[in-house]
């Protein structure tokens, strides 16, 4: 039988897990400190310490992983996973389109590493950036972020603070107070997981069509650890700026979600519940509990279910390997092709033509070069960060990474999940919300970057 909130509150072990587990997660991902004269974060320092002795070997490891992903996926998908256990079947048995992507990623990795084929595949500003500079850093930091993320999300801290945000959510976002925990978890953690959880709650009658649409499109962003990876390792934003980046991200996130909650298409979504269901519990009183008692009970319940250190490590290894096999080939493929298109074709300049004058008018440095990155994020979340890699201005990198994070309604992942779900949004909704959030985010991020002194 599950422990009651009262029993949980008397368990000193749960107190310790809640306090120290959550504090460790917050500190590991968000506590800045000076190291050798530079401002850094624990996750960045650990990544640097681990990577340094193996710097020359890591690109070869990346190529080996790409080859493993492509060949084993081809074999496993062709045979239906015969001879593989359930975990490896889930990793390697996939669609033929995914197999093609993984094989293409492997081919591009081989070409970049051994300088095979046309120079466009392995040049200094294309394949070399991806295989020699980008992927080795991601190799280590993906493991650290994936393994340590439970300390940030699974030890009750998010639930505790989420309760205190309930009234604010009603005022700012036109959302019921109970949405605060799900929204905060989605914003800090995985937006994809937040969308999945929101769909389940929608089907249970916890939210109406308008509310669930705002939750998913307002807070379904990139997880905080992933944001750190994308902005610093891919986008090239200096680690010293990341704490201010996180603060700006919060401000821009609040502002953009306030706007989309009040303008079409989301403001005119119906207040009807899924198939007419409405969970009667959402109208019930809190039983006379104080806000602290509610926050305490939610946090303690979450902390009581927190995984052990052994399970955290095991799940971290398994999840990281799955990411290496499924996500890394996409990064190599999309990243290389995007950089080739940037270096050898005018396509991104054509796409950016309509917004370049606006960016120049507000004084964004390198506006013409940066412009495509503000629109290509609709196709894939990596593209804005890859575009930022080619920018010299830290201010412009800052604005691009903020906008790329806040507007992550990419059709390669988040958008595809939303369109396949029961959540009542369509392609036009996604495109309009993406454009609205971009228009809101850019000037605020630019003003905050200038306030901070970036150039």
TrEMBL record:
InterPro entries: Gate_dom (IPR011642)
Transmembrane segments: 12-35, 56-76, 96-117, 129-153, 212-230, 242-261, 321-341, 369-386, 398-419, 431-452
Pfam families noted in UniProt: Gate
Domain annotation Nucleoside transporter/FeoB GTPase Gate: ranges: 137-235
Superkingdom field: Bacteria
Keyword set, alphabetical order: Membrane, Transmembrane, Transmembrane helix
Signal peptide (UniProt feature, chain positions): none
Protein name per UniProt: Nucleoside transporter/FeoB GTPase Gate domain-containing protein
Species name: Phaeobacter gallaeciensis
């Amino acid at each position: 039988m599950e422990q009651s909130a009262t029993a949980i509150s008397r368990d000193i072990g749960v107190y310790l897990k809640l306090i120290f587990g959550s504090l460790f997660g917050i500190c590991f991902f968000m506590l800045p400190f000076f190291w050798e004269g530079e401002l850094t974060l624990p996750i960045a320092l650990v990544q640097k310490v681990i990577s340094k002795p193996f710097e020359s070997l890591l690109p070869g490891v990346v190529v080996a992983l790409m080859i493993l992903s492509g060949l084993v996926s081809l074999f496993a998908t062709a045979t239906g996973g015969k001879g593989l256990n359930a975990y490896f079947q889930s990793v390697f048995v996939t669609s033929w389109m995914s197999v093609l992507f993984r094989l293409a990623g492997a081919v591009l990795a081989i070409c970049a590493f051994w300088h095979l084929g046309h120079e466009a595949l392995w040049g200094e500003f294309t394949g070399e950036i991806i295989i020699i500079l980008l992927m080795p850093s991601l190799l280590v930091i993906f493991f650290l972020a994936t393994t340590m993320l439970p300390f940030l999300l699974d030890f009750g801290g998010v639930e505790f603070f989420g309760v205190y945000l309930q009234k604010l959510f009603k005022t700012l976002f036109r959302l019921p107070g109970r949405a605060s925990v799900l929204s905060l978890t989605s914003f800090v953690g995985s937006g994809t997981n937040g969308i999945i959880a929101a769909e389940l709650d929608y089907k249970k009658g916890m939210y109406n069509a308008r509310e669930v649409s705002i939750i998913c499109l307002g807070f379904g962003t990139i997880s905080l650890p992933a944001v750190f990876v994308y902005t610093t390792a891919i986008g090239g934003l200096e680690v010293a700026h990341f704490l201010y980046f996180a603060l700006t991200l919060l401000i821009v996130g609040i502002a953009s979600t306030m706007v989309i909650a009040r303008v079409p298409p989301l403001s005119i979504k119906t207040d009807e519940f899924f198939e007419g269901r409405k969970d009667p519990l959402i109208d019930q009183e809190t039983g006379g509990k104080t806000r602290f008692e509610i926050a305490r009970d939610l946090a303690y319940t979450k902390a009581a279910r927190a995984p052990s250190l052994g399970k955290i490590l095991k799940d971290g290894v398994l999840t990281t390997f799955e990411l290496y096999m499924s996500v890394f080939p996409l990064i190599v493929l999309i990243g290389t092709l995007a950089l080739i298109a940037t270096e050898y074709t005018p396509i991104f300049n054509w796409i950016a033509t309509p917004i370049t004058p606006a960016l120049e008018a507000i004084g964004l440095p390198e506006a013409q070069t940066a412009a495509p990155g503000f629109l290509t994020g609709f196709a894939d979340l990596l593209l804005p960060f890859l575009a930022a890699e080619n920018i010299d201005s830290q201010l412009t990198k800052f604005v691009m990474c903020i906008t790329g994070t806040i507007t992550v309604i990419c059709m390669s992942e988040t958008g595809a999940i939303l369109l396949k779900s029961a959540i009542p949004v369509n392609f036009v909704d996604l495109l309009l919300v993406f454009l609205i959030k971009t228009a809101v985010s850019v000037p605020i991020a630019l003003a905050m970057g200038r306030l901070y002194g970036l150039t």
